[in-house]
Specification:
globular, Glutaredoxin, single chain, 3 domains, five-stranded antiparallel β-sheet, alpha+beta, 23 helices, 641 residues, Glycosyltransferase
């Protein structure tokens, strides 16, 4: 029997619509019921392609005994974190405060009817393991505690919220100086895994923001150690199981230090950011390896993850409840098909050794394809063709077809960058941008997400404004179409009006008014993205954004100078302002300096400060159209006059 989630458009909520639990979507109905019946709230947050969300669902949320406990003693609410990132961010902050570490998904929060949190967890097993009590045991303990000490739980919850939102905050500020570059570089080198690339141990995430910042520092300092760090890491990621050698595209993260075993879900934001990163590295080092990975990833996104020029949010890790079933290969089946396709025993042995296809497998008895040894290019392509044939017999994982503004904007911006490699991507990017605006920008109001032909109703958050503004600026750079720049300015001004309050950036300003973080997590900080867009617009339009940029940097200066590696994009903003603003010149003879002054190459800086060891920019203009260049030079001159 379906519950109250049956009419929701979210794929994640639909996945739970037939649970025996009487789930509510977030809203007044559930909150009113909790107060009226004096029942605590159980808020479960996840997303449709999350493996551990599926595990907890099958173990506990489909269990009738657990459902009875929840239905009789709690008001249970399901939240799709991709649909409501404001709710998720709020409760992630609560989890971190209550547990002293960052959380994950599924997120499990228990609250009083007055929304005071008293217990925060992530995945909770059905039976005791991983040092955690069983979910049923936890529910029984909470039921008993709430009946006995509800007032105490309410008080403890108030204390948590007081810590989360102090009435007065002291801002520690310090001077941002040129040592920021060496601090960032030194921290990256310290965390760098010299054997396998990437940073730290498992789990390993792509962390594209760090590489993008390092790439721009390399252009500034010509430090070959930094370039080697970048290219080694990107090669390792691309050759490991994190990268899908068969279909293209990247999985979310690696559970192993060597990039071999991923969590198999594929997210649009990861692929968008990695497409841009690999494209930028190719444009810097002119190595076709990076171009091929970028363009193959675009092909994956266009073939599997898009419809009507827009991009879906994610594909699942599981198929028929089995993690990685679509992505892994059985040795016997591979041997049989390769033999049938006419490969000799010697060729099969060479291919299997190179691609790590073994009898025992490297993941639960099956093999994740990865480049273990070099293989002749022609032989590799033939082998991959056969492996695609095998995949065609499998069912493709579930795809969440929701369209998210910020994630689509990331993908569109990456397509515009890829157009510097192949001009055809400019047309694809423009069609996607126009489709996104038609779908999610209605009557001058921007929305966060929509599914199919439904009308959007969740208004945009800071990340949507920031990434869309950034994509529009990139569109203007590439196409010279004035409307893109005009809309970027308009959206940026709207974002300032709605999300920059009390001289602080907020991620959301509705029921959950949450501050935006300077940290880059799964993808770049929304406020840092917004500031970078404002840096560009500060010279491209009559508006003066300097005071907002200055104060935002000052508020974060202490932590930025202490640990810039945690905030790579904000570090780029600071370095861009620190170096770029001092070399703006009204001189048409040096085109590259104009590009630098505008910050239109991410922040390749021109400086004559030779004693500091910085080199002048020697990268040529990346503009696809001379008309764009002429317009921008004219705009710079007007601004400077």
């Amino acid at each position: 029997m379906a519950n109250r989630l049956k009419d929701e458009s979210s794929a994640y909520l639909q996945q739970h619509s037939n649970n025996p639990i009487d789930w509510y979507p977030w809203g007044n109905e559930a909150l009113t019921k909790a107060k009226k019946e004096n029942k605590p709230l159980f808020v479960s947050i996840g997303y449709s392609s999350c493996h551990w969300c599926h595990v907890m669902a099958h173990e506990s949320f489909e269990d009738k005994k657990i459902a009875t406990l929840l239905n009789e003693n709690f008001v249970a609410i399901k939240v799709d974190k991709e649909e409501r990132p404001d709710i998720d961010k709020y409760f992630q902050d609560i989890y971190a405060l209550m547990n002293g570490r960052s959380g994950g998904w599924p997120t499990s929060i228990f609250l009083t009817p007055n929304l005071k949190p008293f217990y925060a967890g992530t995945y909770i097993p059905k039976t005791p393991k991983y040092g955690m009590m069983a979910f049923e045991e936890l529910l029984q303990a909470i039921i008993k505690k709430y009946k006995k000490d509800s007032e105490l739980l309410e008080q403890k919850g108030k204390e948590v919220l007081n810590f989360l939102n102090p009435k007065k905050e002291n801002i520690e500020a310090t001077k941002i100086d040129k040592t920021l570059i060496s601090r960032f570089s030194d921290q990256a080198k310290h965390l760098y895994d010299e054997e396998f690339g990437g940073f730290g141990n498992e789990p390993k995430f792509p962390q594209t923001s760090i590489y993008m910042t390092l790439l721009e520092i390399y252009k500034l300092r010509k430090d070959k150690e930094i370039l080697n760090l970048i290219t080694h890491s990107l090669r390792s990621m691309a050759n490991g199981g994190l990268h899908d050698l068969i279909d293209g595209g990247f999985c979310r993260y690696s559970t192993t230090r060597d990039w071999l075993i991923p969590h198999f879900e594929k997210m649009t934001y990861d692929n968008a950011l990695l497409i841009r990163l690999y494209s930028e590295v190719y444009l810097t080092v002119n190595d076709n390896f990076f171009k091929e990975i970028a363009l193959k990833s675009i092909d994956f996104m266009l073939q599997y993850m898009s419809k009507d020029h827009l991009f879906f949010s994610a594909s699942d890790a599981d198929t028929d409840g089995i993690e990685g079933a679509y992505f892994t290969y059985d040795y016997g089946e591979c041997f049989q098909v390769f033999t049938k396709e006419g490969f000799t025993l010697g060729q099969i042995e060479e291919i299997f050794n190179a691609l790590d296809i073994t009898r025992d497998g490297n993941f639960e008895g099956k093999s994740i394809i990865n480049i273990k040894k070099n293989l002749d290019v022609k032989m590799l392509q033939k082998a991959l063709k056969v492996l695609r044939l095998i995949r065609k017999q499998k069912r493709y994982p579930f795809i969440d077809i929701k369209i998210i503004t910020s994630w689509n904007a990331m993908m569109i911006e990456s397509l515009f960058v890829a157009s510097l490699i192949d001009e055809k991507y400019s047309d694809i990017a423009q069609k996607s941008l126009d489709a996104l605006l038609k779908k999610l920008y209605k009557k001058e109001k921007l929305y966060h997400t929509v599914v199919d032909e439904n009308q959007p109703h969740i208004e945009a958050f800071l990340e949507d404004y920031a990434h869309l503004a950034s994509a529009l600026i990139k569109a203007y750079e590439i196409t010279a179409i004035d409307n893109y720049l005009a809309l970027a300015i308009k959206l940026s001004n709207q974002a300032i009006k709605e999300f920059y309050t009390d001289k602080q950036w907020h991620f959301s300003n509705g029921a959950f008014k949450t501050k935006d973080e300077r940290y880059d997590t799964s993808y770049p900080s929304a406020s840092a993205t917004m500031l970078f867009a404002l840096l560009k617009l500060d010279l491209l339009c009559p508006y003066d954004y300097g005071s907002i940029i200055d104060f935002s940097l000052r508020c974060n200066s202490y932590d930025l100078m202490r640990q810039p590696i945690s905030s790579p994009l904000l570090t780029q903003v600071a370095i861009t302002q620190l170096f770029g603003m001092s070399v703006i010149k009204s001189n048409k003879e040096n085109i590259t300096q104009h590009m630098t002054a505008l910050h239109l190459l991410p922040f390749t800086i021109v400086t004559s400060d030779a004693q500091e060891g910085y080199s002048a920019c020697d990268r040529q203009s990346c503009f696809a159209h001379e008309a764009t260049l002429e317009k921008i030079i004219g705009q710079i001159n007007k601004k400077l006059l």
